[in-house]
Design brief:
1 helix, five-stranded antiparallel sheet, mainly beta, single chain, globular
Length: 90
């Protein structure tokens, strides 16, 4: 059975696959960042933070996934109302 490869042209709207999303209602931030390579492809780390300005973000979780899965997650979160943002000032 042939394996389908993810479309390499379908990338998040952040160059290099790195970026931040925020959700003001949930007071959360998510950081997408390259985490190296695996046998199956490039890995992306997703770090989730609780954030109540002006306090620094508090880490909640971290997970790694393949790039095409991270792109799908990014798109789903954007459609659900998450907004692109700059990294928080620490």
């Amino acid at each position: 059975m042939p394996r389908l490869r993810p479309d390499s042209k379908r990338l998040p709207d952040i160059p290099g696959g790195e970026g931040w999303l925020s959700n003001e209602l949930q007071q959360q931030l998510v950081h997408f960042q390259s985490a190296g390579n695996s046998a199956d492809g490039e890995l992306i780390a997703l770090r989730t933070f609780q954030w109540k300005p002006p306090y620094p973000p508090v880490p909640l979780s971290r997970r790694r996934m393949l790039r095409h899965q991270a792109v799908d997650t990014w798109d789903t979160m954007r459609e659900a109302g998450w907004q692109r943002c700059y990294p928080p000032v620490r």
